[in-house]
Amino acid sequence: MDISVKAPAKINLTLDVLHKRDDGYHELEMVMTTIDLADRIDLTEKREGIGLESTSGFVPFDSRNLAYRAAALIKERFNIKKGVHIKINKEIPVAAGLAGGSSDAAATLKGLNRMWDLGLTVEELAELGLKLGSDVPFCVYGGTAIARGRGEKLTPLPSPPPCWVVLVKPPHGISTAEVFNAFRLDQVTSRPQLNNMQEALEKRDFSGICQELSNVLESVTLKQYPKVRHLKERMKAFGAPGVLMSGSGPTVFGLVEHENTAKRVMNGLRGFCRQVYTVRMLGGLEEPSLD
Ligand code: ATP
């Protein structure tokens, strides 16, 4: 049986680092939401082994690939002798702060659950996903949620109201690990107010959501890459009321209520960067990625 699964990207509406833990991970508190920018994972059953291909040359083509690792984990855990060929149709920019790799892994877990009739619940898939990466559990659920711990402790939130998301991805990628290594809590000047963001989401208050966007990792990335700061300023100047860097960057996104404004922002940014996208917010869909 062949299966195709959508693997949507996420953006962070807030990202806070509470402290560094004894196990080396940072204790995080974030609000994440799914957007309609997605890879598509095509799974084809084969006699044995795991095959991998991708439409993008920027992803690893071996066991470092998170979709490959997801398949290997399932095969080992459930002693599956059959194999699978994985094709990653890449639309999400790589190393961009949009959790593309994590979403590919989550989609592969979901697809193989169906292909091999494993009967795993979403909770069980999320638990398996955490073995592959901190953002994978969120990508298994999709929607909008507060993510705590390494990112795996999830509390669902109401969806943002319908709006447009304009994304701009500078040419370089960023290593999340390096950003966290350089992060210093005492250099942060403003922190997200989680209660305020939660209230704005509950009230479906678009302006409130825009006002509460906040990401402490900007204190590292904006300093190291002045271009990211410049893109934020341009996006605001072109009329996006809410602008933030997603994850560890370098992607900057703007939230816009009306399609015409989104087009204006997107066209304005095209003069500065090649990779500019306009997509819809998907945060309200509980299962955006099943088919
Ligand atoms: P992070 O989860 O680290 O914040 P990100 O969203 O910034 O990730 P990804 O596109 O997931 O960025 O890529 C992070 C790294 O994961 C890349 O350096 C890439 O080599 C590796 N990677 C492994 N598998 C994949 C995949 N299927 N798609 C994209 N990147 C992958």
From TrEMBL:
<dbReference type="InterPro" id="IPR006204">
    <property type="entry name" value="GHMP_kinase_N_dom"/>
</dbReference>
<dbReference type="InterPro" id="IPR013750">
    <property type="entry name" value="GHMP_kinase_C_dom"/>
</dbReference>
<keyword id="KW-0067">ATP-binding</keyword>
<feature type="binding site">
    <location>
        <begin position="93"/>
        <end position="103"/>
    </location>
    <ligand>
        <name>ATP</name>
    </ligand>
</feature>
<dbReference type="GO" id="GO:0019288">
    <property type="term" value="P:isopentenyl diphosphate biosynthetic process, methylerythritol 4-phosphate pathway"/>
</dbReference>
<keyword id="KW-0418">Kinase</keyword>
<feature type="domain" description="GHMP kinase C-terminal">
    <location>
        <begin position="197"/>
        <end position="273"/>
    </location>
</feature>
<dbReference type="GO" id="GO:0016114">
    <property type="term" value="P:terpenoid biosynthetic process"/>
</dbReference>
<dbReference type="GO" id="GO:0050515">
    <property type="term" value="F:4-(cytidine 5'-diphospho)-2-C-methyl-D-erythritol kinase activity"/>
</dbReference>
<keyword id="KW-0808">Transferase</keyword>
<feature type="active site">
    <location>
        <position position="10"/>
    </location>
</feature>
<comment type="function">
    <text>Catalyzes the phosphorylation of the position 2 hydroxy group of 4-diphosphocytidyl-2C-methyl-D-erythritol.</text>
</comment>
<feature type="domain" description="GHMP kinase N-terminal">
    <location>
        <begin position="65"/>
        <end position="143"/>
    </location>
</feature>
<dbReference type="InterPro" id="IPR014721">
    <property type="entry name" value="Ribsml_uS5_D2-typ_fold_subgr"/>
</dbReference>
<keyword id="KW-0547">Nucleotide-binding</keyword>
<dbReference type="GO" id="GO:0005524">
    <property type="term" value="F:ATP binding"/>
</dbReference>
<dbReference type="Pfam" id="PF00288">
    <property type="entry name" value="GHMP_kinases_N"/>
</dbReference>
<comment type="similarity">
    <text>Belongs to the GHMP kinase family. IspE subfamily.</text>
</comment>
<dbReference type="InterPro" id="IPR020568">
    <property type="entry name" value="Ribosomal_Su5_D2-typ_SF"/>
</dbReference>
<dbReference type="Pfam" id="PF08544">
    <property type="entry name" value="GHMP_kinases_C"/>
</dbReference>
<protein>
    <recommendedName>
        <fullName>4-diphosphocytidyl-2-C-methyl-D-erythritol kinase</fullName>
        <ecNumber>2.7.1.148</ecNumber>
    </recommendedName>
</protein>
<dbReference type="InterPro" id="IPR004424">
    <property type="entry name" value="IspE"/>
</dbReference>
<comment type="pathway">
    <text>Isoprenoid biosynthesis; isopentenyl diphosphate biosynthesis via DXP pathway; isopentenyl diphosphate from 1-deoxy-D-xylulose 5-phosphate: step 3/6.</text>
</comment>
<feature type="active site">
    <location>
        <position position="135"/>
    </location>
</feature>
<dbReference type="InterPro" id="IPR036554">
    <property type="entry name" value="GHMP_kinase_C_sf"/>
</dbReference>
<keyword id="KW-0414">Isoprene biosynthesis</keyword>
